[in-house]
Design brief:
- The structure is a homodimer of 219-residue chains.
- Chain A is α/β, with parallel strands linked by helices and 219 residues long.
- Chain A has helices at 12-23, 35-49, 59-65, 78-84, 119-123, 142-146, 163-173, 190-207; strands at residues 3-7, 27-32, 54-58, 68-71, 94-97, 102-105, 108-111, 133-135, 154-160, 179-183, 213-217.
- In chain A, helix 7 links the parallel strand 9 (154-160) and strand 10.
- In chain A, helix 1 crosses helix 2 (35-49).
- The mean pLDDT of chain A is 97.
- The interface between A and B is large, with 41 and 40 residues.
Chain lengths: 219, 219
Amino acid sequence: MVRIGLLGGTGIEAAGLALRFASAGVQVILGSRSRERAAAAAAAGNAILGRPLLQGLANPEMLELSEIVFLTVPFAQAVDAVEQCRSLLRRPHIVVDVTVPLIFSAGGAEYCGPNIGSNAENIAPHLPADVPLVAAFKTIPASVLADLHTALHCDVFVCGDVAGAKQSVIAAAALIPSLRPLDCGPLRMARTLERMTVLAADLNRRHRKKGARFRVEGI
Amino acid sequence: MVRIGLLGGTGIEAAGLALRFASAGVQVILGSRSRERAAAAAAAGNAILGRPLLQGLANPEMLELSEIVFLTVPFAQAVDAVEQCRSLLRRPHIVVDVTVPLIFSAGGAEYCGPNIGSNAENIAPHLPADVPLVAAFKTIPASVLADLHTALHCDVFVCGDVAGAKQSVIAAAALIPSLRPLDCGPLRMARTLERMTVLAADLNRRHRKKGARFRVEGI
């Protein structure tokens, strides 16, 4: 069974992924620059799970134990977070970018990433050459992931330029109930996925909801 | 009841919209530069409907009789099509852009619109100042619309800068069964919708299907 680590493991995005994967029987390690904060986040998650499934460790220990590493820091910190642990990233690590360059303004949710490209494509060149980046889970709200009482009933869109890495992420995501992984092609499809998340955030605002997420009908 | 006209009424996109709206009880007029081709397309649609609900007319006559005018030409011809009938567009016309800048290459479906902007935003400045442009139906495959035996089970994403026009299109779309219109904000959200259609086309190709379309869960 694959082991999943979360780089930036103390935020809401990490909590949601950790709870869903741990519930699906996957070993999950929350990583943080502070071992204490990681342990506290793991304890909070374990209280929700009712079982001590999550482990909280400092980032180097987390990376030592993990194969799939989710990048769950805020979007603007993603490149720095990768650079800070670059020397510890190596095969067979797969890094999964879930970040979305999104800000809220008076007019609603706004995309604030590069006009040409995506946050995922900005991050990719900062990884070691033999560590692939996969983009996934960008369109699923953290609050929905973190609420284990809500069935997901949606698709997780997965894209990346290294087929094997992408398939590993798809296989892991397929363990989560009520979630269908869809191979969405090369990493540059993250341009679309990041913008879809902005649309979902805007729909949430208009409808006073928090859980807007996508599913594809007809395939 | 609103009357719907289709500018570029002889193609598959027009056929799908015409069949769905006519089935919902809306008066639909197919427009073409050639009255004969418009009449033939209407006859073909009426044969499917089993009732003479569609009318086929030359574009000037179609525009005279229509309030909501769907632009159903191929994406690269949209600006020319608008320019050619610009003198006949006037209040209370609402123009609805359904085009998607999409090409198929060896690698799959590719977005080929402007890097900053969208086909919808390219078209808008060519309309008379008092005729609003709404973008809608971009993400629903024409082949699915044209197959009345397939329940849509999806959302239609509607965006535009003139609230009243957008609401009129939403009200019309709401007449179609199994289709939920969603207000997606200003016209620039078409950037996202057009790219989503490329994603759907790519998913179709991977899964050897034709009907990929989106619905939003959680709102």
